[in-house]
Write a structure and sequence with these properties.
13-stranded mixed β-sheet, 28% helix, 13 strands, alpha/beta, 28% strand
Length: 295
């Protein structure tokens, strides 16, 4: 019996009872099969992790089925790719960024009602990350979480455009990057993410531009370029703002910078009872935080 010849309403019920591996296999059968899966798609979640390997983790992936890894070849976007079905999800190893994007495009086309979490790690370049994020946003997917870890100093070309593509992320943004000190970024539009975490070189990160996030965590550097004026301006605007920012956590602050922050806070006449500010002095355990304001 040709499954794809069943009425659409029947197919919707059939696909509801299939696991994600079966749906993936159907999507690889033919263009018609992928289009049928697209039409019958139900809301789901996918996590994409791009590095030297490309890992796709579908929601409700049953790892018990794949205690032993299965490897098979598939023709995707005109390219033959060897996919590994394993306890973590579906992995594409030792392929070019172009083939990673081809596979991602295939999955997004087959499952158009998905919520996406995406993470980029070395050696993925900003240009590849930008192309991936643009592809997701053009298809109007909901992006739940974004992680970007680039530990080696390199060109920051495409980075502003990449960050602009992150303004629609809804829950969490985490960036650990070694952007050069000359890098400056001003958001094209306010960020929507509830939580924002910044590590690495954070001199590019202007607190005033991210008060649209509810919870901001930032790890400062010994060579921080922030001045007393920086903190006076930020705390003044924050206290006068009705924006979402309610909690600020600053890690690894030098004692001189800590004094600048406290002086800036003391200059504010507005009560801190509605805000939470946490500090961690450089050299102290990360779990030791100075706490100002209410939880």
């Amino acid at each position: 019996m040709d499954l794809l010849r069943l009425p659409l309403l029947v197919l919707i019920d059939v696909f509801k009872n299939m696991d994600n591996r079966e749906k993936f296999l159907i999507s690889f059968m033919s263009k018609r099969a992928k289009n049928t899966l697209n039409l019958t798609s139900a809301p789901s979640e996918f996590s994409f992790q791009l590095s030297e390997s490309f890992l796709i983790q579908p929601e409700e992936w049953d790892s018990r089925i794949y205690m032993k890894t299965n490897k098979e070849n598939y023709l995707i976007g005109g390219e033959l790719m060897r996919l590994s079905f394993n306890p973590r999800g579906i992995t594409l190893k030792n392929e070019t960024p172009r083939n990673q994007l081809l596979l991602a495009s295939h999955v997004l086309d087959a499952f158009p009602k998905s919520t996406i979490s995406v993470a980029f790690y070395d050696p993925i370049l900003p240009a590849t990350a930008l192309e991936f994020m643009t592809m997701i946003n053009q298809r109007k997917f909901f992006i739940k979480a974004f992680t970007y870890c680039m530990t080696e100093v390199s060109s920051f070309k495409f980075v502003p455009e990449l960050l602009d593509e992150c303004t629609k992320v809804t829950e969490s943004i985490k960036i650990h990057a070694a952007f050069p000190d000359v890098f400056v970024y001003t958001p094209l539009r306010p960020f929507k993410a509830a939580s924002l975490k910044m590590f690495g070189n954070t001199n590019w990160f202007d607190l005033e531009n991210f008060m649209s996030c509810r919870d901001v965590i930032i790890k400062l550097r010994i060579m921080s370029k922030r001045t007393a004026q920086t903190y006076n301006s930020f705390f003044s605007k924050w206290m006068d703002s009705d924006g979402p920012l309610q909690k600020l956590t600053l890690f690894c602050i030098t004692k001189p910078e800590y004094r600048m922050i406290m002086d800036a806070l003391n200059n504010q006449l507005v009560s801190l009872s509605l805000f939470v500010i946490k500090f961690n002095i450089l050299g102290e355990p990360c779990n030791k935080l100075t706490h100002i304001g209410s939880n």
